[in-house]
Amino acid sequence: QVQVVESGGGLVQIGGSLRLSCTASGSSFSKYGVGWYRQRPDNQRELVADITATGKTTYRDSLKGRFTISRDNAKSTAYLQMNSLKPEDGTRYFCNLDEDGLPTDYWGQGTQVTVSS
After folding, report:
1. 3-class SS at 61?
2. Rounded distance between C-alpha atoms, residue 69 and residue 13, angstroms
């Protein structure tokens, strides 16, 4: 059974940085793409960044230059480096294993990010 666990969230000041981790077990991690999502005020999830199985990355336009997605297949882990954080970045972040860019049912519980002044 595939399990996905996010970590690395926490409280950070405006302008600070955090690195989120997404670790998967019970799967051939390297064959999946990984998407990082965050929860909007209306409880919908919006895609923040995605990295394909071959390492191609895409980003939400408004976040380009501040967020960086990467992966380490040997550790079955994907990362989201977030810099210059703003109050509006504070929310719950989730990762998902995807297949050819399409989300699967493999979600974690999320990790909370709080940005304060």
Report:
1. helix
2. 21
